[in-house]
Amino acid sequence: DSGVTQTPKHLITATGQRVTLRCSPRSGDLSVYWYQQSLDQGLQFLIQYYNGEERAKGNILERFSAQQFPDLHSELNLSSLELGDSALYFCASSVRDEGIEAFFGQGTRLTVV
Amino acid sequence: DQQVKQNSPSLSVQEGRISILNCDYTNSMFDYFLWYKKYPAEGPTFLISISSIKDKNEDGRFTVFLNKSAKHLSLHIVPSQPGDSAVYFCAASEIQGAQKLVFGQGTRLTINP
């Protein structure tokens, strides 16, 4: 158990819909990272928050957004969903802003039908 | 553009023998390299890392070798155990920060008893 909690574990939704994925980082970790893993692909970095503020952006679509709340949990919002958004979405956390050894949650498997 | 490549999708090794997982990269600016291990229905778990100032890092049964001139790194597991059966991801970063990690596609390692 990495200490990073993601909910829900599975999500099935229709095209055009909007979903919210939730992540609780390890106790004491200030950085939260979101990654997307599509079929047979490596993990792609989406976005990072550090202590409530956006720190870095990767290949995140405009239809996607995220935020980190005062209690440090984070939410990833995906809207106007398309079939190609079906993927595993991982959240990771680390203590520092530049923590190379991030701890990953179990992931949320999103299926868009 | 795949900056980090794991060309073997799968590898099968006899228990007790050496497992060698390979990874190639194209970006000469990468300074930090990591290996993550992933079991089904779990998030990736950090295994071992190496910075570009070293060519070898060892942690118990796991050793990572870095050949900067060939832009190649490898993970050696000796001796291999059944519990090592998992998907192994190679990742690289230009800076010491998980927000910039670029992952390979993964290699599924199966250890046969």
- Element-by-element helix/strand order of chain A: EEEEEEEEEEE
What fraction, in percent, of the residue positions of chain A are helical?
Answer: under 10%
Number of helices of chain A: 0
User: What percent of residues of chain A are in strands?
Assistant: over 45%
The structure class of chain B reads: mainly beta
| Number of strand segments of chain B | 11
Which oligomeric form is depicted? heterodimer
Strand content of chain B: over 45%
N-to-C span of chain A = 31 Å
Q: What would the average pLDDT of chain A be, to the nearest integer?
A: 92
Concise structural overview:
By secondary structure, chain A is an all-beta fold.
Describe the structure.
The complex is a heterodimer of chains A (113) and B (113). Chain A is 0% helix and 50% strand. Chain A is mainly beta. In chain A, the strands form two sheets. In chain A, strands 2, 4, 5, 6, 9, 10 and 11 form a seven-stranded mixed β-sheet that branches. In chain A, strands 1-3-8-7 form a four-stranded antiparallel β-sheet, with no helix packed on it. Chain A starts with a strand and ends with a strand. The model of chain A has no long low-confidence stretch (mean pLDDT 92). Chain B has 113 residues and is mainly β. Chain B is 0% helix and 53% strand. In chain B, the strands form two sheets. In chain B, strands 2, 4, 5, 9, 10 and 11 form a six-stranded mixed β-sheet that branches. In chain B, strands 1-3-8-7-6 form a five-stranded antiparallel β-sheet, with no helix packed on it. At the A-B interface, strand 4, strand 5, strand 9 and strand 10 of A face strand 4, strand 5, strand 9 and strand 10 of B.
